[in-house]
Write a structure and sequence with these properties.
Layout lengths: L15 E2 L2 E7 L5 H4 L4 H4 L4 E5 L18 E9 L8 E6 L2 E2 L1 E6 L2 E7 L5 E4 L9 E9 L28 E2 L3 E6 L4 E9 L4 E8 L7 E9 L2 E9 L4 E7 L22 E9 L2 E10 L4 E4 L2 E4 L2 E2 L2 E6 L13 H13 L4 E4 L6 H10 L2 E5 L8 H18 L5 E5 L1 E2 L11 H17 L8 E2 L8 E5 L5 H8 L2 H10 L18 E8 L1 E3 L11 E3 L2 H16 L4 E7 L22 H8 L8 H24 L1
Helix pairs in contact: 3-4, 5-6, 7-8, 7-9, 9-10
Protein name: Beta-galactosidase
Organism: Deinococcus maricopensis (strain DSM 21211 / LMG 22137 / NRRL B-23946 / LB-34)
GO molecular function: beta-galactosidase activity
Length: 619
């Protein structure tokens, strides 16, 4: 199976993978800058090695030191010739946690703040003419800086409650690309289902000279949908592409992207100087819409019940980094195999290669920011800047259908009484909607709802009866919104009156198996064995699926993660119950979307027809 490019939405045929062995050093006294560790001779003397992109806290890194080390250094020598034909050499970083500085041959070429978002360094001018160059990276990640967007990385020496061992430094791919002097830098795809059009905003790295043109070719399963060439009159090139598509089906199932039909449009873009190609990149897009209207979540204009699972996407041997590119595919496939149609990535901006597989496999995603734990001007500025980069990076992925900038009032300790904190929540909602008006936004998921398109509720009640009493009907929901505090917090603030938001139970369950003596444990309830776990899961799901008002759920959680033992599978991704049994429960029709019962009947009839046809053919 083909491994996706580290940046699947803008690929080039030729790139150099820089993952692997690097020199490595701790700088606990923070003397490296003063002593010039960024100079090649000093960097070559780093005393350790590390396997990039695995964080030094992880076993896979070869370092496996989980104690506090706020500053780390990396170095690698490259055999790389400086281009003489006007080409540029770009050094790409998927993510470095948290502040990164990069030198090439002692020259500072990039600085970036934000542990989950990518950055690029043009290193052309810094390369040595003899073909040997040294890249040095300094990463600063203060484990006790609570204003830093850190998600579930613990600020204490050992993990406690629901927090995990840290991920410091490089944890996503590092690679090199040679590009022409004028090249494509970013692409933004926006589908218009009503007009069967795809809008493109392409950005170049610089203003092109006269005569430069952009050719855009779109295809679906080999059939050409559009082929347009236009003048590139500036750095920003915008074009609307009507899709030449015909279908026998009015629903256009063979064009639109959905979990059952994850159709992806292949894009090939060529920057031309006259007839000569300057730059060529690959990309893709999905024709789909996602919105909330009149209390329903709509995908491609039709109501859809969200069946999601909470995923930390954390691995014992590699932490936030994936063990391999294929592990990201396996994680997405696991969610599908268990009968879920979506995944909520929790307190982590996930590797774009995971989103690529969600696009390919048809798995819906809620994108969530890693939150800070303090409310200060610095914390607001840093989270807002990194969140802006995350939304921009992932805008093109059709699988991503909602944004969650804040979870459970994390970093907002006085949200109920502090006007500034409430203004911050509203500001993040409106900022996200401004950056991306095409997706719903859940401003603060879990409780203390102020504004948003989805009213997400976290309720770890351990009986189906309790869930029915609280969310079974519109009347029950209204009582719960006005009086029930599932986790000692009000569900609505400021006397909020519902205005068409979809209501979803976005965290519930969290059930663990009875731990062995001395085994780490964290969960919201405990059962004795796998049969009891399946029974309790079915009890809770049955109550949710019978609700008149809930438009979706998100079960806590997919995998055991460190001391959190409440996964449906172990940390090694071994199922605790039979996957087919979970799938059968998860795919039952939901009362709040009556059309689902018709789909079940339709699919059953289709399967029976296929079986009869196959039997007749064999006879």
């Amino acid at each position: 199976m083909t491994t996706p490019h580290p940046r699947p939405q803008l690929t080039r045929a030729h790139w150099m993978d820089l993952c692997g062995t690097w020199a490595f050093a701790y700088d606990d006294d923070d003397v490296g800058l003063d002593e010039g560790w960024f100079q090649p001779d000093a960097a070559r003397a780093f005393p350790r090695t590390i396997q990039v992109p695995f964080p030094p806290e992880s076993p896979a890194s070869g370092v496996h030191d989980r104690s506090f080390h706020p500053v780390v250094w990396y170095a690698r020598t490259l055999d790389l010739t400086r281009p003489t034909d006007g080409e540029r050499v770009l050094l790409q970083f998927g993510a470095v946690d948290y502040r990164a500085s990069v030198w090439v041959n002692g020259q500072l070429v990039a600085q970036h703040q934000g542990g989950h978002t990518p950055f690029t360094a043009d290193i052309t001018a810094a390369l040595n003419s003899d073909g040997v160059s040294t890249v040095v990276v300094r990463a600063e990640d203060d484990p006790q800086d609570l204003a830093q967007p850190r998600g579930k990385q613990d600020w204490q020496p050992e993990p406690h409650a629901i927090w995990y061992h840290r991920t410091t430094g490089i944890w996503q791919p590092v690679w090199l690309e040679r590009v022409p002097h004028t090249h494509l830098q970013a692409l933004r795809w926006t589908p218009d289902l009503d007009r069967t059009e795809l809008r493109l905003h392409a950005r170049l790295n610089r203003t092109p000279r006269p005569g430069v043109r952009l050719r855009v070719r779109l295809s679906l399963r080999g059939a050409t949908l559009a082929d347009v060439t236009l003048d590139a009159l500036g750095r920003d090139v915008r074009v609307t592409l009507p899709l030449h598509f015909t279908s026998m089906y009015p629903e256009r199932h063979d064009l639109l992207w959905s979990p059952t039909h994850p159709n992806l449009i292949d894009a090939h873009l060529t920057l031309l100087d006259g007839d000569a190609p300057l730059d060529e990149v690959g990309s893709y897009a999905g024709m789909r819409s996602a919105e909330v209207r009149a209390g329903q979540f709509l995908l491609n204009g039709a109501p859809l019940f969200l069946r999601m699972v909470l995923a930390q996407n954390y691995w014992p041997d590699t932490h936030l980094a994936a063990p391999s590119p294929d592990a990201l595919r396996q994680e997405a496939q696991l969610v599908k195999d268990l009968g879920f149609n979506g995944v909520r990535i929790h307190q982590k901006v996930e590797d774009p290669r995971f989103l690529y597989w969600c696009d390919q496999l048809g798995l819906l995603v809620w994108g969530e920011m890693a939150n800070a734990y303090a409310f200060t001007e610095d914390a607001q500025t840093r989270l807002t800047a990194e969140w802006t980069e995350a939304v921009t990076r992932d805008y093109n992925h059709p699988s991503l259908i909602a944004w969650v900038p804040l979870n459970e009032s994390w970093g907002l300790p006085n949200l109920e009484r502090d006007p500034a904190q409430r203004a911050y929540v509203r500001a993040l909602y409106h900022l996200t909607r401004a950056l991306d008006p095409t997706r719903p936004v859940i401003a603060n998921d879990g409780w203390q709802f102020i504004t948003g398109d989805v009213l997400g509720i976290h309720d770890y009640a351990l009986s189906g009866h309790a869930l029915r009493e609280r969310y079974g009907t519109h009347e029950a929901l209204q009582r719960s919104l006005s009086s029930v505090q599932p986790y000692f917090r009000r569900l609505l603030l400021d006397g909020h009156i519902r205005d068409g938001e979809a209501v979803m139970l976005t965290e519930f369950g969290g059930i663990s198996l009875q731990p062995a003596e001395g085994e780490q444990w964290w969960g919201y309830g405990t059962v004795q064995d796998s049969a009891a776990l399946l029974g309790k899961y079915e009890e809770l799901l049955s109550a949710i699926l019978a609700s008149d008002v809930l438009m979706g759920f998100c079960y806590t959680q997919l995998t055991d993660t460190e001391q959190e033992s409440n996964g449906l599978v172990t940390a090694a991704r071994i199922p605790k119950v039979e996957p087919s049994a979970l799938r059968a429960i998860n795919t039952r029709p939901a009362r709040s979307v009556p059309g689902e019962e018709l789909l079940v009947i339709h699919h059953a009839a289709h399967d029976a027809l296929v079986e009869r046809t196959s039997r007749t053919t064999l006879e």
